[in-house]
Structures are given as structure tokens and as C-alpha cells.
Amino acid sequence: MKIGILGAGNLGTALGRRLAGAGHDIVVAFARTEDKVARAARTMGGGARPGSPEQAARHGDVVLLSTPWPVTLGLVDQVADSLTGRVVWDTTNPFAPDMSELVLGTTTSAGEEVARHAPDAAVVKAIPPFAELLSSDSAEVGGHRPGLFVCGDDAGARATVVGLAAQIGCDPVDTGPLKLARFTEPQGMLLTNLAYVQGMGPRITSILVQD
Description:
Layout: E1 2-6, H1 10-21, E2 25-29, H2 34-44, E3 49-50, H3 53-59, E4 62-65, H4 69-79, E5 87-90, H5 110-117, E6 122-125, H6 131-135, E7 147-152, H7 155-167, E8 171-176, H8 181-197
Helix pairs in contact: 1-2, 4-5
């Protein structure tokens, strides 16, 4: 599958490395410098290559959005035409700049805002495990694959992201419509606080256990 990655930071790079390892064709874009984008592509391996945001968006059957929230909607506006007909896998969380709180919640979500700015794309919200966990040899925590809750209004797009999530070592759960991102994003805030403020570290996850 062709995948464009918008966001060459730690998470985008870790996801790209796992997706390239699964055989996907990747173009990565968007960082403070072109050198950082090039380094991210080299780290991903598997023939991943750097490009501009428009090139990554046009390249991907799936476009993975992995950017800091303050720049996300501006970037989506920039490439919105190139996202037409694409599945957009939104991994962002609407953290305040100091990561102390969410700037959206309850009545909307980052995923829904991304969808408003890219109305001709099929946006799917699924917040993956921390980059440190994805960058390790095994993403398992306590013998379990990390849970990943998948929200989107297009069932086919959700199924696509569910499949990719399984390939990167997660245990995906199809949760239904995009508005449920209003509840999965606060869960991401909770895990971030536990990992980095409470000192539990990034090898933590939440999973769905069903009997």
C-alpha cells in the first residue's frame, strides 16, 4: 500500500519504520528542516523517501497525520485538495503547548476538526502507542499487544486502519463513528500524564479485555 506520512517527528518516524517493515511504500514529509525529514526516511528504511507535504498527501492511499496539534489544521488546509479520496489516519492529540491539558474535548475532537478541514477525505482517529514503545523490538506490554481504538465515519476506512494497526503490533478495536474520538483523545492525555508526569514511563498501554 502507498502511505504518506505528514510529520517526521518521533511518532511519525516510529510508525513509518514499522509500516515500511511491513512492505508499504512510504513518502514522509513535514519537519522543521528538510534534513530532519531525510533522516526520518532513512530511519524508516524499506525504501521510504522524503518529500513535500503535497507529495506525501498525493502519494498515499492512506495519509498518516502525526504532527503537533498547534500546526495540524494549518497543514491540513495546505494539502486538503491532495487529500481528496484518501484515508487520513489522524494520530494527533489536541494538547496545549505545555502538554498539561487538552484544548478540545467533550463537544468536538481533534479528529472531527481535521475532518472539517479535509471534507473530501475519510478521516479515521486512532492514537497509537508511544514512539518509544513502537521503536523497541517488541511493542508488547506485559505480554499484551497495545490497544488501539479506531474511530471514523467510513466503515471501509476504519477497516483499512484496523489492518495497518495490526501490522504495527497493536490490538485494534473498531469503535465506530468519528465523534467517539471525543473520548479516545482524553484517554491519550491520561496515558501521557501517567507516562511522563507520574513517571510510569512509555511502556504502558490500555487494552480492551472481553469475556
